[in-house]
Design brief:
This protein is 56% helix and 0% strand. By secondary structure, the chain is mainly α. It folds into 3 domains: 33-74, Irregular (CD2-Gal4); 93-110 and 118-275, no CATH class; 286-422, no CATH class. The longest helix is centred in the last third of the chain and has 21 residues, at 378-398. The chain is globular. It comes from Cladophialophora immunda. This is Zn(2)-C6 fungal-type domain-containing protein. Residues 34-64 form the Zn(2)-C6 fungal-type domain. Keywords: DNA-binding, Nucleus, Transcription, Transcription regulation.
């Protein structure tokens, strides 16, 4: 039988079939690393993480992460949720023993209404939030020295006092919202949940005699409640903010509640955390001789009487104006923060009543305090800027016949506008700045 000769291919030559196969393979060679949105839209993903260029141009959330829906429009709320998801997934499996230890401690110390509604169970997202509290958020509470004490002590207190653990979670979620540039948006689900759980437990404890071991935790909790209450200002425009609209001004009475807890908790006992904090406050307080001489201001006529006179005692502005005037000549910084906090803590009832009635001079006093602190801590800058702008609008609209007040509005307007332009306040660009007439 004749053998069929095998023809060897000439080196470097290919057949038409081989060429077709080669072209077919090249046409189907696709990246497996692109996001799902680009695959759905049949466009080439540039594979940049966490947000590819095509999704950025198209206005959707990039969905490398399987938990993000396909073609989800980008909004402030959706980006905040995406950030939470990335933070939660960054935790490694080694955190499970820590999480178990926290849950055991919380279960052991759960009682009252918390016990009736089921023990608190923390998950990895809560543990991630707790880590952000410890490494970031707690350092924004109080002066620098006091914040370091809180960093050392608060987590230990929170693990044995579930209401404080919930408050630490709520404050950190508020801080997250600020850093995402949506400070005046609605609180996240986690933020609202933890704040509600904290308030229920907090109120239950205050309805009975306070145990000695609860004193430190209650006072830290009252400080964190002050932070959350002052920060929370939900508005989509300046027109929705008090005094342009009626709103809850409960934050004005927080100092009264803290003083009540102070009396109940015996905070200066020998082993108390607050004995150390009080010592730091005394050391950090600016001596009277270092306070600069007061320069005449628009408020001088509100407290011109002699302090011992009957007219001074009857003057509803007097005591609060005396707290404000020295601050007008001070820069708000770590060394003067206690003096600025004293203004809020020493608002007396007659002055608060004037604020409730939207008295123009009472509003102007608050406005100038806002102007001085609007570049301060994250939890104070949002309200200071937005409510400060609302007060400016209110006074210019309804007290345009008072030339002294109109002249006094010029500087705060410029300060608030500049602070927003510099990025203070964490206020979304969707919340328009007012147009001054």
């Amino acid at each position: 039988m004749a053998r069929t000769a095998k023809i060897s291919p000439v080196p470097g030559s290919t057949s038409a079939g081989d060429n077709a196969t080669s072209r077919k393979r090249r046409a189907h060679k696709k990246s497996r690393l692109g996001c799902r949105n680009c695959k759905i839209r049949r466009v080439k993903c540039n594979e940049v993480r966490p947000m590819c260029g095509k999704c950025l141009e198209y206005g959707v959330l990039c969905n490398y992460d399987p938990s993000i829906p396909d073609l989800q429009p980008r909004t402030d709320a959706s980006e905040l949720g995406c950030l939470y998801s990335r933070m939660d997934k960054s935790l490694q499996g080694t955190t499970k023993p820590i999480l178990d230890m926290v849950n055991v401690s919380l279960d052991k110390n759960t009682h009252g209404p918390e016990l009736q509604s089921g023990a608190t169970r923390f998950d990895r997202s809560d543990l991630a939030r707790l880590d952000r509290f410890q490494t970031r958020t707690v350092l924004t509470i109080g002066t620098k020295k006091v914040a370091r004490v809180f960093q050392k002590e608060v987590i230990l207190l929170a693990c044995t006092n579930p209401f404080l653990m919930h408050l630490a979670q709520a404050v950190t979620a508020s801080h997250d919202r600020y850093l995402c540039g949506v400070a005046t948006s609605r609180p996240s689900t986690a933020e609202a949940y933890h704040l509600n759980k904290a308030l229920i437990a907090f109120q239950s404890i205050l309805s009975r005699p306070i145990r000695p071991e609860e004193g430190d935790a209650l006072l830290v909790a009252s400080s964190l409640l002050g932070v959350v209450s002052f920060f929370n200002l939900e508005a989509s425009s300046v027109e929705e903010v008090w005094p342009l609209q009626d709103a809850d001004m409960a934050w004005l009475n927080l100092s009264d509640g803290k003083q009540t807890i102070w009396r109940l908790a015996s905070p200066l006992k020998g082993d108390s955390l607050w004995r150390q904090v009080a010592h730091l406050f005394d050391r950090d307080r600016m001596p009277a001789h270092q306070i600069p001489e007061h320069v005449p201001s628009v408020f001088d006529h509100l407290c011109a009487e002699d302090a011992s006179s009957a007219s001074a005692r009857l003057n509803p502005y007097y005591r609060t104006a005396q707290q404000l005037l020295p601050l007008l000549d001070l820069e708000c910084n770590d060394s003067t923060w206690l003096q600025y906090l004293g203004f809020v803590n020493h608002m007396d009832p007659p002055y608060k009543s004037l604020l409730g009635r939207k008295d123009p001079w009472a509003l102007l006093m608050l406005l100038y305090w806002y102007m001085k602190v609007c570049r301060g801590a994250w939890w104070i800058s949002s309200r200071s800027i937005l409510q400060g702008q609302a007060i400016c609008l209110y006074l210019s609209r309804y007290h345009s016949d008072d030339l002294a007040i109109l002249a006094a509005l010029e500087k705060p307007r410029m300060v608030f506008d500049a602070a927003r332009m510099e990025g203070w306040g964490g206020i979304s660009s969707a919340v328009d700045s007012p147009r001054w007439s």
